Amino acid sequence: MNVGDLRVGLIGLGMMGRHHARVVREVDGLELVAVADATGDPHGVAGDLPLFGSVAELIDAGIDAAVCAVPTGMHEEVGLALAEAGVHTLIEKPIAHSVEAGNRLVEAFAAGGVIGAVGHIERYNPALQSLRDRMAAGELGEIYQIATRRQGPFPARIADVGVVKDLATHDIDLTAWLAQSEYVSVTAQVTTRSGRPHEDMVAATGRLANGIITNHLVNWLSPMKERVTVVTGERGAFVADTLTADLTFYANGVVNTEWESVANFRGVAEGDVTRFAITKREPLRVEHEKFRDAVLGVDKDIVTLEEGLRTLRTAEHFLSSAAPGENG
């Protein structure tokens, strides 16, 4: 350990917890000093570190910061304990299981004067970071639509929330962040086809405050895995594939024609296609570096608890807008 390193504790040693442990151990300025999980350590994350069974024991280990990777239903209980103890905390997304619980977390961290962040990791995907910069620079001109597709098989790790709060929250957050505008209306249809207690498929449309319309297809019922964001504007369309971190631009073409009936149609034509060469750093590593910098007061490029709460509120609007009887 280097003098001045932040002492980090990790609670929740499941699929995401093991990745957090690996990255915390790799990032400069952080030292993983203790881990906790009431159900044990299935992936052998602890190594030679003490393995605790509760958040209280983790706090007693003398930590400066924590990663909360427990199931969503436990985010409130664990987060409130960490806030009360003055521990800066990165909470896996979504912020909580309900808006009410999210509100209590926001208030507790504010009252304690400690940093809280939500792990909406897609913000740190290099394809989306490049896309946001290009959108902000006006490369698309006026932006018309943001559409996302997030589909794949059911992950055995998720049991306490449905696909809207687990997966669609990624798309809600990244869309508002890309557009730098909040949702003002949403309409969704959900269905449950797998026999589990929560919805496993959603189709949603929305509108942002700046007039951009949105479309989101999210499910756990597809045999192919897809993570695609398409932004369409007056100069063409960007396609970001966050599985491969590739960003491609499809430009509107300019085609001259002497055919009057075609020339009179003011549509778009196919133009040049460009795939950008971008530096591909691991999003989770960037997320932890940004959280470290926020704790040290160097930077504040994190997903704040307030932003996480807005995303959760929009997700709940997805569910409440679904027609009665269509979400069961």
Question: Brief description of this entry?
Answer:
It comes from Prauserella shujinwangii. The protein is α/β, with parallel strands linked by helices and 328 residues long.
Task: Describe it.
It is built from 9 helices and 14 strands. It has helices at 15-26, 55-60, 75-84, 99-112, 126-136, 163-179, 260-263, 283-296, 305-321; strands at 6-11, 30-36, 51-52, 65-68, 88-92, 116-119, 143-151, 183-191, 201-208, 213-219, 226-233, 236-241, 246-253, 269-275. The protein has 2 domains: 6-120 and 284-302, Rossmann fold; 123-281 and 313-321, Dihydrodipicolinate Reductase, domain 2. The strands form 2 sheets. The protein has an 8-stranded mixed sheet. It has 328 residues and is an alpha/beta fold. Pfam families: GFO_IDH_MocA, GFO_IDH_MocA_C3. This is Putative dehydrogenase. InterPro entries: Gfo/Idh/MocA-like_OxRdtase_N (IPR000683), Gfo/Idh/MocA_Oxidoreductases (IPR051450), GFO_IDH_MocA-like_dom (IPR055170), NAD(P)-bd_dom_sf (IPR036291).
